[in-house]
Write a sequence for this structure.
């Protein structure tokens, strides 16, 4: 099944919490997919079954309280169940008081139309643009801000999407379990060159990461 849709779906997750998000996503997709097919099939059936026929008088209905109660209560129960199921994950990902202790904090500044990343290196601050690195298996906290308009910090492989809003500090964390290179995209239409606002995240071993940080520091001078 997943092979058929592989071109349409997100790439396999590369963050530790990605599979939990994907699980919820697939569950919601399954529920809404089944209900969509059932609803459309019923619609087509009724349209054919009760279509106008010569000599047949139209039938007027006041509705059915029982049917309305069922189709209100069932979706409400599903929504509440999904809400309860996702509560822990939501808190872990969206409530800073539930975030794990970060080993590295990266300041991110979004600007029309590029990304600035500031790291606290062993000997002072290191700043890079668009291409940034994190070590594998490490909790990394991103502290987001924007200089001009609203931008969207989107790491599809990490299942991270957080707006960067001028005057507001937003935080998001990630721990990647798969070394590799991943896309960074801006998901807010932030001006004429919005399409250019992209970068690359490299996930690598802690040793490679430290070497990169040193190199970036040396290149800044
Ligand atoms: Cu942008």
């Amino acid at each position: 099944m997943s092979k058929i849709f592989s071109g349409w779906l997100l790439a396999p997750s590369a963050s530790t919490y990605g599979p939990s998000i994907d699980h919820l996503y697939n569950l919601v997709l399954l529920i809404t997919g089944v209900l969509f097919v059932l609803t459309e099939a019923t619609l087509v059936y009724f349209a054919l079954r009760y279509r106008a026929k010569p000599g047949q008088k139209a039938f007027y209905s006041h509705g059915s309280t029982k049917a309305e109660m069922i189709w209100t209560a069932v979706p409400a129960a599903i929504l509440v169940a999904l809400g309860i199921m996702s509560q822990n994950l939501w808190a872990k990902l969206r409530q800073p008081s539930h975030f794990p202790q970060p080993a590295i904090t990266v300041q991110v500044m979004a600007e029309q139309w590029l990304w600035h990343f500031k790291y606290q290196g062993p000997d002072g601050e290191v700043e890079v643009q668009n291409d940034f690195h994190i070590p594998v298996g490490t909790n990394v906290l991103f502290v987001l801000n924007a200089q001009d308009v609203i931008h969207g910090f989107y790491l599809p492989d990490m299942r991270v999407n957080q707006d960067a809003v001028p005057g507001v500090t937003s935080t998001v964390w990630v721990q990647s379990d798969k070394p590799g290179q991943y896309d960074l995209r801006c998901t807010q239409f932030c001006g004429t060159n919005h399409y250019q606002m992209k970068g690359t995240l490299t996930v690598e071993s802690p040793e490679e990461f430290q070497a990169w940080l040193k190199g970036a520091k040396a290149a800044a001078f």
Summary: DSSP finds three helices and ten strands in the chain. The chain has two domains: 18-97, 104-219. The chain has a mean pLDDT of 92. Residues 18-97 form a domain with the Helix Hairpins fold (CATH 1.10.287).
